[in-house]
Amino acid sequence: MSIKFNSLVVLAVIIILNFSCAEQSFVSKREKLDLSGIWQFALDSAGTGIQQKWFEQSLKDQVNLPGTLDENNIGFINTNHDETMRLSRERMYEGKAWYQKKVSIDNSWKDKEINLTIERTKPAKIWVDGNFAGENSTILSAQKYDLTKFLTTGEHTITILVDNGPESVPNGIKGSHAWTEHTQTNWNGIIGEISLEAIPGNYLSSIRVVPETETRQAVVFVGIHFNGKVQEEAKIRFSASAWNTEKKHNVSAKTFK
Questions:
Q1: How far apart are CA 124 and CA 177, in angstroms?
Q2: Pairing of strands 76-77, 113-118
Q3: Cα–Cα distance measured from residue 202 to residue 231, given in angstroms and rounded to the nearest whole number
């Protein structure tokens, strides 16, 4: 192992022990830029936005995010007054919708990894300054996008295409609670966190603990990310030998690859 790798492993041990043995709240050292508020917007009911390169254009309408199109009073008036099996929406919309916002990246974020998080949304595609930056069809957890190579210091335009149309997910998902009109409704929008996060080049990317009850030991697998390029994994073995009245473990630890 290199010296840098060993030092990061030691850091991992300290973090694991700190959160395992101490009663204190977690305060993140990562910088975040909250993107909640007014976004430029365009409804794409014909589904022609990608072909016409709307991601290179300035969208004219506005919506407030987090929020759904229903909450922003956008969509087609629901004329079905015979529905008795569920609550009815005042406005209906299934298909593509575009959301756009200008962001300013501070010089302090230079050389850091920058991730976009959009939480509680539908299948989405992302562009930055007209350049395609990724897509994600996750609807049950937050979508995350690595925008490091796109968001240099200065001003940029982030464009998000959200699609709640019938062709955007497999048939099996259409009847799920995350999609059907019978529960939370098949809304279009983003109703959770929307943020950019700057992460230092070296960080812990994963921690996994495997207990060995017979030997009173545990092996901790620590994924370590170096400068946004190289990822390695270390294994740390802990042996619990005592438990005192201050609720702190006396442990021995060793690392091995």
A1: 19
A2: unpaired
A3: 10
Q: How far apart are CA 97 and CA 57, in angstroms?
A: 14
pTM exceeds cut of 0.90: no
pLDDT digits 0-9 by tens, 131-184: 999 999 999 899 999 999 999 999 999 999 999 999 999 888 888 888 888 888
Sign of CA dihedral 143, 146, 150, 153: positive
Euclidean distance between CA atoms 227 and 229, whole angstroms: 5
User: Structure tokens of 96?
Assistant: 């593509």
Q: How many CB atoms lie within 10 A of CB 175?
A: 9
Sorted by sequence, the CB contacts under 8 Å of residue 235 that are 6+ apart come out as 219, 220, 221, 222, 255, 256, 257
What's the rounded Cα separation, in Å, for the pair 152 and 196?
13
Q: How far apart are CA 235 and CA 170, in angstroms?
A: 39
